[in-house]
Design brief:
The protein is 41% helix and 18% strand. With 170 residues, the protein is an alpha+beta fold. It has a domain at 29-121: Roll (Nuclear Transport Factor 2, Chain: A). The longest helix is centred in the N-terminal third of the chain and has 20 residues, at 2-21. The termini are far apart.
Length: 170
Amino acid sequence: MRTVTILVAGLLTLLPLQAASQPAHEGPVLTPAAQPAFERLQALVNQQEVLGADVRVQGIAIAADHAILKLSGAGHQSSVTLRPRGGSENGGRFFAIDPPGAGTPVDQEVLRRLPQALDRSFQTNPWLIPTPPLDPTPAPLPEPATGPSLTTVFLAIGGVLLLVGLLVWV
């Protein structure tokens, strides 16, 4: 019984090490401050009808590296994925918009208006770009130079020229 307890205790101490060894998410992550902005977006769409008279936000699912906006309108439902803006993608200042998959109806006018609604809802960038952890081991020092340095070579050449000049002058 004592052996089993020691083995279980040993395994339990290894579990945090395994979790710590899992790589952290390397790309931008949504900050907790994004939640109120998503609520503003939902109110803006549902109350002010900025995406269209019949378009509503049914829900928003927030993950670390993306958010899913669930839209409904005109008898259909669809979802668009909001990711960090990477380049020239359409999506406003902070987001790239992945349209729903093939066969899922979504009005192109909704996709055209969504970036403006996102820009009105998000005054600041909701993405946190994680910095890589500092390496605790210092960089190795450069190897000391072996042989004469450039300064020593120039001093030696200058000394030889000076001696030759003195010998020729005398």
